[in-house]
Amino acid sequence: MGRTIKIALILGSIGIVVAAAVATALTLYFKRKTDPTTISNNTTVQQSTTTSGFMGVNVSTNRVNTTIYDASRTTGITNPTTTLISTISSTRMSVSTTQAAFVNNTVSQYSSALTISSQTFCRSGSCSDAKQYFEAFRLTVLATGPYSMKSSGNLDTYGYLYSGTFDPFNPTTNLVTSNDDDGGNRQFMMNATLQTSVQYIIVVTSYYTFNLGPYTVTVTGPGSVALSLMNITGLTTQRSLYLSTLNNSSATFCRVGNCSNGLYYYYTALRLNVSTNGTYYIVSYNNFYAYGYIYNSSFMASAPDTNFLISNEDGAGYGAFLLSTNISPISSYVLVVTTYSTNVTGPYAVIVYGKGTVSFSVG
Questions:
Q1: What is the pLDDT of residues 79-105, one digit of tens each?
Q2: What is the pLDDT of residues 153-202, one digit of tens each?
Q3: Which end of the chain has fewer surrounding CB within 10 Å, N or C?
Q4: Residue 168: which CATH number?
Q5: Strand, helix or coil for residue 293
Q6: Are residues 100 and 204 in the same domain?
Q7: Are residues 194 and 48 part of one domain?
Q8: Is residue 285 part of a domain?
């Protein structure tokens, strides 16, 4: 499929003038998308709440075990990218209903976002690891009849509708319908006749693995609907977050070629320390094209082929790498975060998913 996913991170404060300009530009770029045809005079029926984070990432939650590492504590960076974590992005979750003009239908909307605090599952049901973020909502209808459920936003979404219960370990059980792209612009649209006597569940997830971003679900039908976020128990995937920036002071090496004329690649080398043996997925989030490498024991910038295990450039889609490897507490692996092109700088995040937490140390 032709898909465009815009993923970026918000820069830390590096000087008052630069920070103000960058924060303003990227806040506009990543602020919640609203449907340009949103009907006015909406009546709020659920109190809006706000959670703050980095690139929409909610870094404080009691739903998952999220371990966060501030790069300034291990690299001595004086202006780390984490300085704006609590202020640069807000995820507003709200439900509104209104009577659509000239038609005998009621429109209900719910706006939220998939973040690293969201739960994960295997969307296809055939994979061994949970790789898609999702949110599940109880859907109660007040009038029986045909309803349309459509997503909007920049996130490439996938929608599922269930009756009764939703089991993330058996995603085909109780499934009424599902959809990927019928809403256009990589958005799902599901149509179904809903009964007032039945409890329904809408699951919003992404087409690609480990994708984050805001979205809005619009439900249109003969009556208003009540939507409430669910917390599914029994999901144990843990995630650990590392935030940093490649800049002009970062170490350099020659990733490919002979790097003539001063064309080098900035990089950060991170030693990965795990608490539990298992398969771990290492994903980057960046606004440049990143390249990731895994090395056994150590990384030598002067001999980048030595101890090399695996690498990836675009596994998570559109410039973000995705690496998968088995790591044990007694193993010693080094992750190298660098760029696809020479002399590129910018902020990035690395999130490691697996059965246990991961700590990071530079070098």
A1: 223 222 222 233 334 455 554 443 568
A2: 999 999 999 999 999 888 999 999 999 999 999 999 999 999 999 999 99
A3: N
A4: 2.60.120.380
A5: strand
A6: yes
A7: yes
A8: yes
Count Cα atoms within 13 angstroms, Cβ side, for 120: 25
User: Is 180 part of any domain?
Assistant: yes
If asked whether residues 37 and 180 sit together in one domain, one would say yes
Both tokens assigned to 9 = 């991170």
Confirm if 102 and 78 have CB atoms less than 8 A apart: no
Residue 61 lies in a domain: yes
Q: Identify whether the C-beta of residue 361 lies closer than 8 Å to the C-beta of residue 268.
A: no
Residues 247 and 320: beta-carbon distance below 8 Å? no
Task: Enter the pTM of the model.
Answer: 0.63
**Rounded Cα distance, 30 and 154, in Å:** 9
Query: Is residue 3, in this structure, part of any structural domain at all?
Result: no
Residues 122 and 49 in one domain: yes
Among candidates 45, 39, 35, 184, which has minimal Cα distance to 103?
Answer: 39
Half-sphere exposure of 216 (CA within 13 A, CB side): 19
The count of C-alpha atoms lying within 13 angstroms of the C-alpha of 207, restricted to the half-sphere facing its C-beta, is: 18
CB atoms within 10 A of CB 360: 20
95 and 118 within one domain: yes
Q: What percent of the chain has pLDDT over 90?
A: 49
Range of the domain at 345: 238-362
Lowest-pLDDT range, 7-11, 130-134, 136-140? 7-11
Strands 175-179 and 157-163: antiparallel
* Radius of gyration over every alpha carbon of the chain, rounded to an integer in angstroms: 22
Q: Which amino acid is at 94?
A: S
| Residue count (the chain) | 363
